[in-house]
Write a structure and sequence with these properties.
With about 325 residues, the protein is an alpha/beta fold. About 40% of the residues lie in helices and about 15% in strands.
Length: about 325
């Protein structure tokens, strides 16, 4: 077995799993203002960006050959109705217009959710301290349409409401966006690894938690049911989130479904690796590429990762 491991050239020749920049999607956080580049304390090297600074990041991503970006909005004002999520002049909508004017042929994906836009930090309309599923579907459908109208190439619902893919597909089709694909966060777990993101997006829930709508980390078979329902409702692509703690779920999804499959190497995964690297406990370049390779090897076609720029440069 060692014969084909004896040189770098031979190891490369027989390598089963390969990484390429076009397999990466870079998450970006857009906020109000001009010239804003505010570093996120728990995610070194990542920033809350005003629209002008966001465009610069997108230009760099394009030059590096990265497959696309996904946008998360931080609105000027939050309210109980998440109105900033679906406002035609919302922060993500403005960012989309700017990206599409300045950067050609870069896929712009939008996160379709409400937690960044609600005053209470939950993903939908709250009634008696619980999220009302069907009212929330209306918000999500309006957000998806407004994103498509502003130029989104793909809309990606991450809320985990039942029936949201069907509601979004119906709304997109009714408004003339039949060609806009849906990337569903189909198996999204109620994970401890989202902590740094909630600082970045200012989206921590003000009461309770999200375990009544995000998945229990103990469940595998349930993930397959979630994904199957989203496929039946019209999802064009599916996603597992988080990635590295759920490699078994990625593998199961790859074996069972033939749609394009993504995985999100979430903020906690990034921050955990970054902290170990900065302490000198891990080799930076090898740790980054090995972590991404594990996700691809499990079966993901593309990876949402905060290491997208660095990994693209390494490759």
């Amino acid at each position: 077995m060692r014969r084909v491991r004896s040189s770098a050239a031979l190891r490369s020749l027989v390598r089963e799993t390969r990484l390429a920049p076009e397999q990466f999607i870079l998450p970006l956080f857009v906020c109000p203002g001009e010239g804003v580049r505010r570093e996120i304390g728990s995610m070194p090297g990542n920033f809350q960006l005003s629209v002008d600074e966001l465009v610069k990041e997108c230009e760099q991503a394009k030059k590096l050959g990265i497959g696309g970006v996904i946008l998360f909005g931080i609105p000027e004002v939050k309210d109980e109705m998440a109105s900033g999520a679906y406002a035609e002049s919302g922060i993500v909508q403005r960012a989309l217009h700017a990206i599409k004017s300045a950067v050609r042929d870069l896929s712009a994906i939008t996160d379709v959710c409400n937690c960044e836009y609600t005053s209470h930090g939950h993903c939908g309309y709250v009634v008696n301290n619980d999220v009302d599923n069907d009212t929330t579907l209306d918000w999500l459908a309006k957000s998806a349409v407004s994103h498509a109208r502003a130029g989104a190439d793909v809309v990606a619902p991450s809320d985990m409401m039942d029936g949201r893919v069907a509601a979004i597909r119906k709304a997109l089709d009714a408004n003339g966006f039949t060609n806009t694909p849906i990337l569903s966060y189909a198996a999204k777990y109620a994970s401890a690894f989202y902590g740094p993101f909630r600082e970045a997006a200012q989206s921590a829930p003000q009461f309770g938690d999200r375990r009544s709508y995000q998945m229990d980390p103990a469940n595998r078979r349930e993930a397959m049911r979630e994904i199957e329902l989203d496929v039946e409702e019209g999802a064009d692509m599916i996603m597992v989130k988080p990635a590295m703690p759920y490699l078994d779920i990625i593998r199961m999804a790859r074996d069972r479904f033939d749609l394009p499959l993504g995985a999100y190497q979430v903020s906690g995964e990034f921050s955990m690796l970054e902290a170990a690297i900065r302490n000198g406990w891990l080799d930076r370049n090898r740790a980054i590429l090995e972590s991404l390779t594990s996700i691809r090897r499990a079966g993901a076609d593309f990876i949402l990762t905060y290491f997208a720029r660095e990994a693209a440069q390494l490759l």
